[in-house]
Specification:
Elements lengths: L7 H20 L10 H26 L14 H29 L5 H7 L3 H31 L2 H42 L2 H22 L1
């Protein structure tokens, strides 16, 4: 019989996964561990995400007393990962076509955050997109969807709740122009995860999207 998530530790885990990034960055605002430059802030942000992942993994193992497979990690399946990469490519294409239309209609401009990230050293860009892909999928797809699905018996509802929060936390930095692709990407990744329930494949999809949007497209433009 599948274990139900209904204890206080699970709700703590949900709080960490859904709101931990925003809360921790707010609490540590004004602290420049790696300097006050944009690159230094990005490094500190990456570190915060990995610290939260460590807390969440420890919570799963020692407080919930469950395995890491309970949040969607499975044995690596190349076929499923390749599907994730393809879906990532498709999501980017849909996003570009949508943005092209809306930019002309609404007169939107490229979000400044995209330009700032694309100007970082290549190694830092790779670290940042990899950190985001792994940590955010653990938080918003793996843990949030699995636990909310178990609590409510409605995994789609879990996907909707986590997806809305995921888009909301990105809005302050990316604005409306950035929110449009974020919504598209979130729909694609959430739907893919709900269908496959494979977190590694979702991470591969997220990484593909980040790589194309942050490193490839700005270079081509």
């Amino acid at each position: 019989m599948k274990k139900k998530s209904n204890n206080i530790y699970t709700y703590l885990g949900l709080f960490i996964s859904l709101f931990g990034i925003t809360l921790l960055s707010s609490l540590l605002k004004g602290i420049y561990l790696f300097g006050s430059s944009y690159g230094g802030k990005i490094n500190f942000s990456n570190l915060q995400k990995w610290i939260l992942v460590l807390f969440l993994v420890l919570l799963i193992k020692y407080l919930e007393k469950r395995k890491i497979t309970s949040i969607g990690f499975k044995s690596i399946q190349i076929k499923t990962i390749l599907k994730g990469v393809i879906m990532g490519l498709l999501a980017v294409v849909v996003s570009i076509l949508t943005l092209g239309l809306l930019f002309n209609i609404l007169g939107l401009e490229e979000p400044s955050t995209l330009g700032a990230v694309s100007q970082l050293p290549i190694i830092l860009q790779l670290v940042t997109i990899t950190t985001a892909a792994i940590t955010e999928e653990i938080f918003y797809r793996g843990y949030a969807i699995e636990r909310l699905g178990e609590i409510t018996d409605k995994y789609l509802l879990g996907g909707i709740i986590s997806g809305i929060i995921f888009v909301a936390i990105h809005f302050p930095a990316w604005g409306i122009a950035g929110a449009i692709p974020q919504i598209i990407f979130t729909i694609f990744i959430t739907a893919f995860y709900l269908k496959k329930r494979d977190l590694t494949a979702a991470i591969a999809m997220h990484w593909t999207i980040n790589f194309l949007m942050i490193m490839v497209l700005p270079a081509l433009m």
